[in-house]
Amino acid sequence: MKLTTKHALAVLSAVSLVALTATSAVAKDNRTIGVSIPAATHGWTGGVVYHAEQAAQEIEAAFPHINVVVKTSPSATAQVSALEDLSVGQDLDALVILPFTSEELTGPVERVKESGTFITVVDRGLTDPAIQDLYVAGDNIAVGANTAQWLAEKLDNEGQIVVLRGIPTVIDDERIQGFTDVMEDTNIEILDIQYANWNQDQAFTLMQDYLAKYPQIDAVWANDDDMLLGVLEAIKQSGRTEIQYALGGNGMKDVIELVMANDAMTPISTPYPPSMIKTAIYMTAAQFAGQAPMRGNFKLDAPLITPENADQFYFPDSPF
Amino acid sequence: MKLTTKHALAVLSAVSLVALTATSAVAKDNRTIGVSIPAATHGWTGGVVYHAEQAAQEIEAAFPHINVVVKTSPSATAQVSALEDLSVGQDLDALVILPFTSEELTGPVERVKESGTFITVVDRGLTDPAIQDLYVAGDNIAVGANTAQWLAEKLDNEGQIVVLRGIPTVIDDERIQGFTDVMEDTNIEILDIQYANWNQDQAFTLMQDYLAKYPQIDAVWANDDDMLLGVLEAIKQSGRTEIQYALGGNGMKDVIELVMANDAMTPISTPYPPSMIKTAIYMTAAQFAGQAPMRGNFKLDAPLITPENADQFYFPDSPF
């Protein structure tokens, strides 16, 4: 009888031990990552929303103790309110934010940080970089420079080209600077360079003007894939045949499809991908999943997207 | 009868649909990440081995289609062979490497890349940076500068200090440069600055020399936590009481424990953490888990480790 009790106790404690071990193996503190992004007002932000939602699902499936809450906002003012909603309703361990504007969001993000929240800023910086723990951004100079290097080589450093600018911003300035710096070392002449506000219709009209003005155009750089679609339509309607290349930049789905199809006029693109929001969410989660150091500055490259590697940059279900 | 058959077919196709959906949800291509790192020849590399193995376990648990193979090598020559073993035996989708030396490993890593393997380089760069897809490194200038800023403020920009250098390398040069650049804007005098090769015993002996030579030392910067332990022992044995602060850098476990305990002489550290190998493995895996863009350059910050945040930098089971 004594022996039996002892035995029963031994079994019981073995069971408890197993139960305890199992519990401690999964008993990580629950963590919540808030994600605040612009609503899908145009193609690129549509991609941001898609990739943020995908990342949330994937992270929650991979790391059950990590909860990812995505909030989209149609304006800077709405994003300020969204930050309040996110941080008042729950204990926010991290905030991943793609700010609408630097000026209006800096103060509100600083207040979120004051309660100990890890801050990841994506794409557009805040006016005070000391607030962010992690910064993830693309390289707009490389978008321009890598495209220019490829084009200069293809044109054998000779010819006449036209360029379209986006909206007057640092992003546009950097892309143009990266492109023109490379072109200055060639005999390629930039015939014209005008703004079309990253807008497909305006790019169509501007390209029609360029075509009317210049009888010989060897290539077009549209600076952005949205504008490239307008440019391609204008070229198609004009029936002009001397234009060898029309290139954009961003890694838009429609353009990646052209690259995958080995299109003669658009055989490359350079990414400034909306999926960088995914990069930021995965990096932020890795800190909570494995205590991996993630404070710092991640500058994404803008490698050439070619027919060989295009599948790595292609998301068939994404709107962008 | 006809209706029943139709009904049965409908049920069957519904079942098939569910089966197909379930399959496609998990039917991701299997991916293998090879990790090549130095063997645990000293404290810091001991930490690298620990964190690489932890990351492998965590990633495989979170993403069942990702396989992580860790190989440690006791020398540069051995690491070259390890790369051959890793890439010959299996289809390597990515290689995460902390190279022993830049010169000897550059060629072998380039050959691995030629078969389409994604290359992540950690800490020490290759001689040709174009080979890497992702580069993850600490910020040695910030290690020196952030420590110097904290110390200058505590000393009210006045006093006499001594500094220990490591092994003559770019890493040591950058830490020292970051520190001395900040000190130049203060009235703090650096009495002496000598090499102790990141070695605890040599740091002990050098600190004894400093103590014999200089009757008034307000603070010591050991540049590295291994050396700091030697310095602390020399101070302890000397019985000298005027030294207010003795600081290192790296985020070694023993020193984080001092910080957590609010130690008067060593209340801070700055990380150059061996866990950056984890950062690199998580980032590389995120590319295969969610196609998150991960080509680029990630420079880790060296934020001050203080009693308030020390738990984030502390791994109780790590050897370092």
Automatic annotation (TrEMBL), chains A, B:
<dbReference type="Pfam" id="PF13407">
    <property type="entry name" value="Peripla_BP_4"/>
</dbReference>
<dbReference type="GO" id="GO:0055085">
    <property type="term" value="P:transmembrane transport"/>
</dbReference>
<feature type="signal peptide">
    <location>
        <begin position="1"/>
        <end position="27"/>
    </location>
</feature>
<dbReference type="InterPro" id="IPR025997">
    <property type="entry name" value="SBP_2_dom"/>
</dbReference>
<protein>
    <submittedName>
        <fullName>ABC transporter substrate-binding protein</fullName>
    </submittedName>
</protein>
<dbReference type="InterPro" id="IPR028082">
    <property type="entry name" value="Peripla_BP_I"/>
</dbReference>
<dbReference type="GO" id="GO:0030313">
    <property type="term" value="C:cell envelope"/>
</dbReference>
<feature type="domain" description="Periplasmic binding protein">
    <location>
        <begin position="33"/>
        <end position="291"/>
    </location>
</feature>
<keyword id="KW-0732">Signal</keyword>
<comment type="similarity">
    <text>Belongs to the bacterial solute-binding protein 2 family.</text>
</comment>
<dbReference type="GO" id="GO:0030246">
    <property type="term" value="F:carbohydrate binding"/>
</dbReference>
